[in-house]
Write a structure and sequence with these properties.
The protein has one domain: Ureohydrolase domain (Arginase, Chain A), CATH 3.40.800.10. Helix 1 packs across helix 8. It starts with a strand and ends with a helix. An eight-stranded parallel β-sheet has the order 2-1-3-8-7-4-5-6, with helices on both faces. By secondary structure, it is of the alpha/beta class. The protein is 33% helix and 15% strand. The model has no long low-confidence stretch (mean pLDDT 96). The protein is globular and about 45 Å long.
Amino acid sequence: MARFIVAPQWQGSSSSRAMQLIDGAEAIAGDLPRASTTVLDPVPEAGDAQGTGVHRLSALMRMRERIEDAVGTGREPAIVIGGDCGVALGAVSAVAGDDLAVVWIDAHADLNTPASSPSGAFHGMVLRAIAGDGDDLHRLEPGIAPARIVLAGTRSLDAEEQRFIEQHAVRVIAPADLADPDALAEAVVATGASRVYVHVDLDVLDPAEMTGVALPEPFGARTADVVASLRRLRERLPLAGATLTEFSPSTPAAAVDDLGTILRLIGALA
C-alpha cells in the first residue's frame, strides 16, 4: 500500500501563481486517505540564493531534508504530492541507487543548470540535479545516470536541455506515442533498471484536460494514455516512489474541476 507525503513547496517555481501551489497541494490532500498521508509544513520564508544561481535555495534545501526524512521512514513506496517539481529531488535521493530508473512525465525536461536557466527557478533544473549536475549544495550525489532517465510527454525544450538529451541519448517519448501503453514500459525496461521512480508534472496533460497549471503547453498527452502507460509500467517493474506536482488552481472551484483527473493519475501510481 502506498504512502502519501504532501510537500507544499512553492519556492522552486518561476510562476506568478507560485503561492497557489500550496492551495493545490492542500486540495489534493483533502482527497487522500488520512491514515496513510503525511502533510509537511511549508517552509515559511521565501529563502535566498546562498550565493548561487538557484533562487530561494535555502528554503528548497530545508524542504528537501523534510521530504528525505519522511520518505525514508517507511517501507512502502511514497507518493510525494507537490508543490513544484523541485520536491522530486528529496524524494528520489531517499530511494536512489544504481538499479533505479527515473521516468520524467512532464511537458518540460527540467534539465537546465543554474548557468543555463532563463529564470533561476529550481523547478526547471531538478532533473539535471537528479542526474548529478548543477549546484553543489542541491543535487544528487552520485546522480542517476542519463541512460537510466526516460522523458515522456516532453515537448518544450531549452537549448541546453536539447544539448544534454542529444549528448547522452536520453530516451524521449512524445505525447502521441503514449497512446501505446507499451511504449513507456519498454523504454524503461530497456534501461536495465530493476526499480522505477515516476515523476508526473500535471502540465504533461493537454490544456483541454488540465486547467490548473501555471505553465501549460499545447499538444499534450491524454489523461487516459498516461494512466494506461503508468499501469503497464507498474506491471513490468516495481515502483520505488513517485511524485505528482505543479497543481496551482486559480480558485477552489477550479480545483474541484481538475481533482477527478488528478485522482485517476494517483490511482495509477498507487
